[in-house]
Amino acid sequence: MHWCPRCRGVLLSPGRVDAPATQRNYRWVARRPDHRTRRAAPTTTPAPLGPTPHYTQTPRWGLLDPPPAPAGTKPRPLRGIAAARDLLLASTALAFVLAGFAEYGRYLILLQNRTRLIPGWLLWISDATVLVFGILAPLLALATALALVAWLIEARAAAFAAHGGRDPRRRWSLILGCLVPGANLLWPGVFLTELLGPDPDPRALRAVRIWWAAWVFSGVLLVIATVWRDAGTLQAEADGVSFTAFTDLCAAAFAVLTLWTVRLLEGRDLRGAPRSAHRWVLASDPAEVVIAPVAPAAPVTGQDEPERADSAAPGENTQEEVVAK
């Protein structure tokens, strides 16, 4: 189009519309509408950029997203006593072992005193060890009993809470059943059996029964040792010293058995490591038939049989075909 449809002005200089750019004598220039009134912007020298901005330390501003705080739990006084259970059991076992050795040392001194005099310093050491460990071991056993009762209360509460229930027995009934002499031979085994739940692990149930029988046996030994120490004759008193040493060693073994039992109920071994489950598996898959039974081929009838006989070379053994997989 050579002429503007609005103002009828010349749009193109004379020439062909499809002329190439090298043959044109005009060019288009784009200008702003106010190019006549707009002044040229003064030229400015850009300032130097300077060093790159950076932080000298980690910025403290921004959105804070701290991790959620753990749910607060009410402090339970029994939980702190139960936490010292393992240490008290180990200390009780060691104290009873030393008490047993002290009693056996006293028994050896009694044997030697039949024929010769005993030095005063040796007798003083024997009296001191028997007295110290004879008092320390029962005190540690009492503290251990309190820690075990606290652990039993906490473990029962956690076990029943895991099944969405609550321990049906009162706390005072658990304490009296475990600490009252005579009754504490029966009720601790009942409480531990209830702790295992309605479908107990056979290994845990067997461990509880073994511990229960050993607990009753320990009570019987304690009664016998207490009565025996009041014997009237010298030989009976000496035998009482030997039996007391035996009961001390049995008490140490029972403390170790108790430690093993409570850790077994918690899924650990005697050393405190998590107990790994052993499962018997088949060493190989059951036997499968990989070769089908061999069956003879169908007998040849009719005219095929003479032809087979003729086709066989003289002296050549003919074999029946078998189907094998």
In whole angstroms, how far apart are the ends?
A: 91 Å
Helix content: 40-55%
The overall pLDDT average reads 79
Q: How much of the residues is beta strand, in percent? A: under 5%
H-E order: HHHHHHHEHE
Strand order of the largest sheet: 1-2
Biggest sheet layout: 2 strands, antiparallel
- Structural class, from secondary structure content? mainly alpha
Tally of strands: 2
CA radius of gyration: 50 Å
Overall shape: elongated
Q: What's the total helix number?
A: 8
Low-confidence stretches: 304-322
Summarize the structure.
The chain is mainly α and 325 residues long. 50% of the residues lie in helices and 1% in strands.
Provide key terms for this protein.
1% strand, elongated, mainly alpha, two-stranded antiparallel sheet
What does this structure look like?
The structure is a single chain. By secondary structure, this protein is an all-alpha fold. It has a domain at about 80-265. About 50% of the residues lie in helices and about 0% in strands. It has helices spanning about 75-85, 85-110, 120-160, 170-180, 185-195, 200-230, 235-265, 305-310; strands spanning about 295, 320-325. Strands 1-2 form a two-stranded antiparallel sheet. The two termini are about 90 Å apart. The model is unreliable at about 305-320 (pLDDT under 50).
